Please model this.
Amino acid sequence: MIQPARLDEAAALATFLREQVDAVRTSAFGLIEDEARLTPTRSELSLGGILKHLAICWPTWQRREACERGDRGWELTEADYGMFYGSFALAEDETLSQILEEYDAATAALIAAVEHLDPDADARAAPAPWFGRMEPTPVTTRMLALHMIEEFARHAGHADLVREQIDGALAGQLTMAVNDIPGNDFIQPWERSVD
Model:
């Protein structure tokens, strides 16, 4: 009988985060450059834009840590707003491979940070003007990690919808293709159709 994994809380949080990180990354499997920029739904979200947006998770985490240390203030600058709002679409000079590389580096660093956090440590969440919070909010690092899981899960759902609209690929099919899992009577790995 296989025994369930025995993880401490930080490792469990990192495991759930990694699953969402991988889900978003998998949604881009097999895309060509033009497909990464497509916005096939009523929203302006593209897969490249979702990946780019989530790649700012690590600089944002680092900034919060710098604020906690007193290395910088919590005020949001024009550059901060520009980074956030500019993160939802690929710029002319950005490529899918470049964004995937940035995403992989950023998410690996974020997962490592979550694996080593003390869930009960005091922290502050950054201001979030889109929720009407203009000042940092006292929280625990557990809440920060849970917020990251929620953020990636939200966008993993977006990525699934956008990808399905592009070429009909389903998350399970893409996961099988990425992990080289053979097909079965229920589902087959994704393959690019040749029309």
Notes: Residues 141-167 form the longest helix (27 residues).
